Amino acid sequence: MAYKVIPWYKKKHVSQVKSDYAYHHTKHAVKQHTERKSSFISVSQVQAQAEEAMTEPAYVIPVFRQRTAEETEEYQRVATNVGKGLSVIQEELHRMRMATKAQVESLEIEREVKGMMTRRLDLLDEIPKMPDFLLALRSHAVWEKTPVKLFCTVEGNPRPIVKWYKGGVPVNPLNVPGKYKIESKYGVHSLIISRCMVSDTAEYSAVATNPHGTATSKAMVTVRRPAGAGESSQLGLVPHLTDIHPSKLEVSLLDRFRVSFGVEGSSISLVCTMVVVPDLPNVPPYAQWYRDDKLLKPSKLAEMAVSGSAARLTLPHLAKDDEGLYTLRIFTKDGTAEHSAYLFVSDATPFAAGAPGAPMSVKAYDINSDYVLVAWKPPNTVNEAPISGYFVDRCEAGSDTWVQCNDAPVKVCKYPVHGLSVGHSYHFRVRAVNSAGISRPSRKSDKVTALDAAESERLQVIKIDGKSDIVIKDDDLEGYVTIPGEPTDVHASEVFKSYVVLSWKPPSPRGRAPPWYVIEKCLAGTGAWQRINTAVKLHSPRYPVFDLQDGQKYQFRVYSVNVYGSSEASAPSEPIQKVDGDGIELPVGVPSAPGKVAATRNTKSSVFVQWEAPKHLKNLVGYYIDGRVVGSKEWFPCNNKPFKHTRFVVHGLIPGESYVFRVQAVNIFGLSDESQESSPISVEPALGKGAEYATPSAPYGITMLSSDGSSITLAWRSPKHCGGSKVNAYYVDERDADSLVWKEVNLTGVKDRICTVDNLTEGTFYEFRVQAGNMAGVGLPSAPSLPMKCEAWTMEQPGPAYDLSFSEVRSHSLVILWKAPVYSGASAVSGYFVDMAKKGSSEFVTLNQEAVTHRYLQVTGLEEGETYVFKVRAVNANGVGRASQLSEPVCARALPGTHEIVAGVDEETGDIFLSLEACEICETSKFVWSKNYKPIGDCPRVAVTAKGRTSRLTFTNPDKDDLGKYSVVVTDTDGVSASHTLTEDALNTMLELSYAIRHPIVPLKHGLNYEVLEKGHVRFWLQAVKLSPSVSYRFIVNNKEVTSGEGHKMSHDVATGIIQMTVDNFTRASEGTYTVQIHDGKAKVQSSLVLVGDVFKVALKEAEFQRKEHIRKQGPHFSEYLYFTVTEHCTVMLACKVANVKKETTFHWYKEEDEIVPDTPPNVMSGACALPIPLFSRKDQGVYKAVLSDDRGKDTSVLDISGQVFDDIINAIAQIAGASASELVLQCTPEGIRLQCYMNYYTEEMKTVWKHKESKISSSEKMRIGGTAEMAWMQICDPSDKEKGHYSIEISDGVKTHTRTFDLSGQAYTDAYEEYLRLKAAAFAEKNRGRVVGGLPDVVTIMEEKSLSLTCTVWGEPTPEVTWFKNEQEVISTEHAKLTFDGSKFASLVIDRVTPEDSGKYSINVRNKYGGEFVEITVSVYKHGEQIPEHKLGQPKMATPVATSVPPKSPAPPSKTPTPTPSKAHTPAPSVKSPTPASTPVPKSPTPTPKSPTPKSPTPKSPTPSRGIKSPTPPRFMKSPTPPRK
User: Fold this and answer.
1) CB 780 within 8 A of CB 698
2) 129-135: strand order across its sheet
3) What's 371-410 look like in SS3?
4) Model confidence over 468-496: pLDDT tens digits?
5) Whether the bond into 1162 is cis, omega within 30 of 0
6) Bond into 158 cis (ω within 30)
7) From CA 1153, how far away is CA 1156, in angstroms rounded?
8) Cα-flanking dihedrals φ and ψ of residue 783, to 5°?
9) If I label 566, which of 255, 279, 349, 574 is the partner at 20 to 30 A Cα–Cα?
10) 1144 contacts 1191 by C-beta, under 8 angstroms
11) For a pLDDT cut of 70, what percent of the chain falls above it?
12) What is the distance between the alpha carbons of residues 685 and 603, in angstroms, rounded to a whole number?
């Protein structure tokens, strides 16, 4: 019998004692998850097996059968030999038995020792022991930026909990990610500070705690900075640390970049934070970025940065080329750490509405010396018009000037660009075109250099001895070749409907001279060759041909040409036909539509879409996926860059919303037809998306609510993740605090988060844990609760409230809710206090000064983005009870897209409702409505319905009992909730609206009104907001219904809602009340209009006027009555417009019934007539009339130019004249100093004000105001120093005031005053000089022997001297010629008995000290009987004034303004030997002519006047020097 002894250490059993608590807890938790009950192999069974192995059975001698003698002898002989061998075997067997026995005894002893040790450990575990450090902390001194590790070993029963402190402050690794790392393995507790700084110098302590006491171990950490190192010193001072390779670092990724969304032209950064151990500044982790599994390199479009805390990828100028799956790969000690997320880039706003998006992925292929093939990917068109083509642009590298390459849009996503310059570098871009406009340009391509690709093939490299390289050109091997050979292999490399690209092989031999190519074409089979590149010199073996006709086949051949000549023609190509719309000769086109599309759930904001590939791929580029909200007609793009696979995750969807999807395939020809739409799918998280989401996460926050000495009531918080389905059960386990074995409390799950655990031992500490279950199974257990002592509560105050939750969390407020304590104390709970503190703070503030009786509180005044914690204390008559467990931290920030409850009235039914649209929802979500935060449940007063993301609470019979605060919570979300207070005023308003809806009326935009039409018809109308085609109505006039017929026309328009009735003959009998009654379905309305009294008279008068107007317009009439305009030259124009005229129609102007005949007869056929009134003034006031007539009738238009009309005309003139007014001009006169303002026109009716030092000037003897048609003036008579100062003129047009100024002070006044004195003296001299007043003829004819008497009157002050001359010789008084001067007034020359010798020129010179005058007389003496001689007519009497010059006191300075040329000035005839010099006469008028240019020659200060003209000083009695009108 064989025995097999198995050592005890090889047997399968489970030890009940483990050296490490964490290890045992984890293993035991896994076993409890898979199997709630566990069995163990007992020690007695092991001992029974050992005893069986040691048992030795007895030996039995066999019984032999009877034998013969021979057999016996043979048996004895054999037995003797066998006996010898048997004895040997028996000895060996005995030896083996003894060895086995010794081994078994040894094993038994060892097992007994092991058992004793186990019992000792169990005994030790049962002995309470306070914490004790077996290995204490040790102080460290380290360099800056190096790691340090503090560790210790502690024992105790129960196992102590170790916490770390820095300077007495708890160390929290979460506050500084990556800074601290706390570990606890195999009883060794450690604190790792990854990168020390000087500020980390402090005393660190480890505090071990269990129920029996506390122990502390302390150590000092000193961080030193190398000598001379600043804050930015690197670890190069620690040489042995710089040799670490990046791949040897330990890297843990923390915050990872998520799915991101960007827009073309913007920027975005993808950041992933990490913890690196050790964190060395000069040895950052080795990181790589990938897009769609292609390694990215740093560039201007992709900026990368990595440090010990984060890896960052920045895309500064987003384009759709950047869309894709981005992967960060970091090489670590254990391999690689990776993270991936998708980046979506949407189209920027197009330049023109409806224009397509920009193309993408522009690249250049088949690069030659003057030819490049550009290709790109088409954009997605969802709601835009289809793309009709593309424009390709090029730009030389280093330039910003883009040149369009193609004149007409190309329809495929390829285009051959030729005509490039050899050796030049280019960028390319593409723009898409549709019926709405041109897209934004694509991102430019990489730089491309135009080089001959065949040049490198003509070089051969030969190695000599494996070292030297010899480069040989094909030119050297071909010999001396001048004319190149012919090209070969002419074919079409690209064939599209828009163009064909010809390709061929270069000639061989080519020759040393660079060749170019000539191409010819012909219709296939005709042989009629025609050159096609006459103006283009080709250097590349490629050429695009664009002008081929559809349906025709062509052949091509090519010549090689250089400076020496041309080669023979190449062999003709095969017949080439351009692709037509049906794809003849080359089956191309867009792919077929993708197959079946299926959408499945992924996350709460994404959907997984799959589809079948098209049956005909046709060089597929990728797919575009479009989405649409169910119920909407608008599609939106899910991706903006073609996706290559047949599956795609659509992100950025609205949680709870339902969508359908479709797919299009893409190639260079465009987009395929859309696939069939997928089935609608609601955006919800997928059940079982990873093991951690299949079952609920662990509950937490176990708290004790009460205890009676034999039981404990517990409560806990819901799992943070429900796993995709509703939590429907909780399981509770309990154990002694000193034991490691958990016991089930409830075999059947409890649905509420509260449970009472019975059959407990009073005075014992217990720990509890809870597991949650859903339809996917039971989740992981919670962490053990703190030890709870089972002892009866006897305090008089209430126990803690529990189940603190939050609702309606907003930026500055929230509502906290809780449940009443299980233990109420000695009296009933009467209220609650709520305390609040910021997270991390221990300073709580009581929010309510008086206890609230309800179990909720609205908290206001929160800081947006701040995190808070709360606790609640119940109150009874005996005092304030225990505080509740701290709430979960809550951040004061509303969920994105949060909506509030809306109160409204249903437009169809009139029901009053409260409605909420949830910003997110999942499949298991429910809307829980409450009134005053008490669940409503099934209540006959309200009805709750839900559809999609919207829930509605409808009141069945609303009244005052329904007033209150209503709230709703959406379960299984991140806290979606809202509330609304229904007030009495709001309810009354909605009740009124509800009544209006349930008892509808037809709403009116406009009530019944009337309108007078042409011909005197009157239209009665009203407009409703909305009418249906089944509307009916009737009109009632004076309580009598009117029907449509003769004299009345009724109609309505459903589109505009207008109902109208037209009365053709509106007379005095039409006075009364008009009513219209409307019925439209259930709705009705009535509107009335009362036309009586004055209101009716106004309507009747208007109707009669329109009737007359209609009659008037049957003949010639004024389409616009008389009105006035003013031209830029200030001419007033009376204008009108006429209509319905003919050639025979006459037009006449009248003023005050007197006809006006204008210089230009009016032309009625032009449609407009005008009467100019130049130099308009008050004399032009009156009634003007225009009469238009012919055989069909007459029409009259009247304009009364007086009153306001006259004022309006004057203001219009003033507006133009004021704008044209010149600056004030200074002009001196003998009477004083004059300021003049020239303008287009001036009249005294204009509102003109002169001011001196801001004081208004009135016309007086001192200050005279006047003007002419061309200017306004103000004259200062006899000026003095008082008149110095600032002068201005203000011309007002009723709206604006035009001001011109002049500063008459200083030198300007001095010069003007001196000029005035000079002119005044000259005028005085002119007035008092000697002159001939009258009496002398110009010509005297006398017969001889007669007496001649020349007598004249002279004047002068003082009395002038008179001298007579004959032929320039002075006449002496004689008997023959007597001179007399009587009374100093009459001078005479009497010649007695004249003779022919007395004929001649006589003259008289009258003068005094101020000057004089010289007058000539021609005397002719004829004999008796002779004919009287005739003298020339029109020869004037020449009177030359002479005067003594009166010099001014001082020479007058030249005027600052140009001296104008005087008008109507005559130059005097020169004196004949005048004994006195000519004086400077005074002009008649100082008015200058602005249009006359100033002469270049010097102009005297006073212009030269004509002789004998009086002074221009106006008479004092004249008010204004305004000249008379012509």
Assistant:
1) yes
2) 129-135, 148-157, 188-193, 180-185
3) EEEEEEECCCCCCCCCCCEEEEEEEECCCCCCEECCCCCE
4) 566 556 566 555 667 888 888 888 888 87
5) no
6) yes
7) 9
8) -70, 145
9) 574
10) yes
11) 81
12) 4
